[in-house]
Amino acid sequence: MELNVRLFALYRERAGANTISVAVNDGATVADLTAEVRRQLPNLAPPEVNIVVAVNADYAAPDVILKPGDDVCLIPPVSGG
Amino acid sequence: MIELTHDALDPEKITAKVYRDTNGAVVTFLGTTRDNFEGKQVLTLEYEAFDEMAIKKLEEVRQEMMAEFGLEQVAISHRVGTVGIGEISLVVAIGSPHRKEAFYACHKAVDRIKEVVPIWKKEVYQDGSRWVACEDHEFSPAESHGHAH
Q1: From residue A45, how far is each of A13, B41, B46, B120, B141 by CA, in Å?
Q2: Hey, CA dihedral for B123, B42, B133, B111, is it positive or negative?
Q3: Which terminus in chain B has less CB density within 10 A, N or C?
Q4: Does residue B149 lie in a domain region?
């Protein structure tokens, strides 16, 4: 399946795009997605930085299974306040 | 009681939301924008949010504080967009029957906001810019795992 993945802040600037399209197998997990994102965009985040994912506007653990149509966003380390 | 806005924040107005005749204490925290980073002059700050999730997470923090400290009045406003130096970017106002809970809840609410709410700030300098924390964390990977909760 093809997922539209939204990017914010540092990740948006590094990718030069608000959204990217990422192809993963049916039944893929959040961890599968971040592995594929790293293949597509090796400079998005250094290997030691965990890429945090939000699915349908909530933080999603690496083992969460993705479904077509999910709202998937990559969340760089936050710095509000 | 939760607000994400491009407009200037009015701390008096936000604080007034938590006044009740049954409360004996009100604590308000103001986050303000600093003009320097490691000796470099910061000209302005730009805040970006993942709006729908930020509002949801701010409401979660509010509910957590009410449950943990037995409070009924918690108001949180966060500014987004371009914010000038010395302006207010965050207001957290707590109303409580007693002062202790108000102080604790205010402190904890600000810490939680900085941990879980998807808002990012960029410092703009004369000769460039920097996303705060994002890039800091790349140099201290041990701290980079605290954001998934």
Answers
A1: 12, 27, 21, 16, 11
A2: negative
A3: C
A4: no
Which domain CATH number covers B66?
3.90.1170.40
Topology of the domain comprising A2-75? Ubiquitin-like (UB roll) (3.10.20)
Residue of chain B nearest A79, judged by CA positions: B120
Cβ neighbours of residue B61 under 8 Å, at least 6 residues apart? B76, B109, B112, B113, B116, B117
Q: Does B53 contact A80 at a Cβ distance shorter than 8 Å?
A: no
- Per-residue pLDDT of B52-81, as tens digits, reads 999 999 999 999 999 999 999 999 999 999
Predicted ipTM? 0.95
For A49-67, the three-class secondary structure string (H helix, E strand, C coil) is CCCEEEECCEEECCCCECC
pLDDT in tens, A27-80: 999 999 999 999 999 999 999 999 999 999 999 999 999 999 999 999 999 999
Two tokens at B4? Answer: 């994400």
Interface check for B8 against chain A (CB to CB < 8 A): the answer is: no
> Which pLDDT score, from 0 to 100, does residue B136 have?
52
